[in-house]
Amino acid sequence: MSSEATALGTAATGTWGVLRGETQRWLGRRGLFHLVLWLAVLELALYHAVTTKNQPFGGLGYESLMNMLVISSALIGIVLTAAEICSSYHSGTTGWVLGKPVPRSGYVVASVGGLWLGVAATTIFVPALVAYWWLPKVEPYRSVTPEALPLGRFLIALVLISLIMAFFMGLSALLAVLFRRRSAAVILAAWAFLVLRVPFPYGDWMDYTPARLIRTNINQGGWSELTEYIYEVPFDTMSAVTGTLGLTVAFLVAATLVFRRLEL
Description:
- The protein is 72% helix and 0% strand.
- The chain has helices at residues 2-24, 29-52, 62-91, 93-98, 104-134, 151-179, 182-197, 211-214, 225-230, 238-259.
- The relative contact order is 0.14.
């Protein structure tokens, strides 16, 4: 029993080391560079949308912000996850790391988890909170009374966007270990995002995927369920949240099972 506990503790320590190493990549100079760059891109694009177009219709551009966060975070997460898994595999880094006391399942989960934490902070939470502060202070194209949205709902919406990003990162990780080609993983995961995002008629089963949260509602002026939620519309899509979370875990479990059989 003691030997099993020792082996488990060693594996946990190795997994934690991978997670910490992946997360620390976003805390140094490189992470700061990406944060500043993305802040400039997002905030300037949002400012342009708010001040030069026939929008917002009373929302001070928060609907534009939500759309930008959903699209950009998902696509960035897809690309970086595929790059992380595939480049490490082909460069031999994965084999070297697994020569240490790190289980294969722990390596996949820690790599994707650390990447998710860094990307969520850089592309979702920090830019969104900065925009939340300055958007009500900008004179919009149409004359409306500046008023910030409820902060609690706004933060919950950001958590849901990070969950949606985790869904597509998990899918990208699974595709990356299946095909071991970055381009194939990115193209297929991006195609899945497009299918779930575009407001085509879907079956009821799609209500248990991120589609219910991110696809635009033509009847509501192109808003998604997430955008409606931050404007205090009742939230009735918990099935999509639980389904997205369950599918994310399923993708990661499947990725670890496939990864265990790879020749490194």
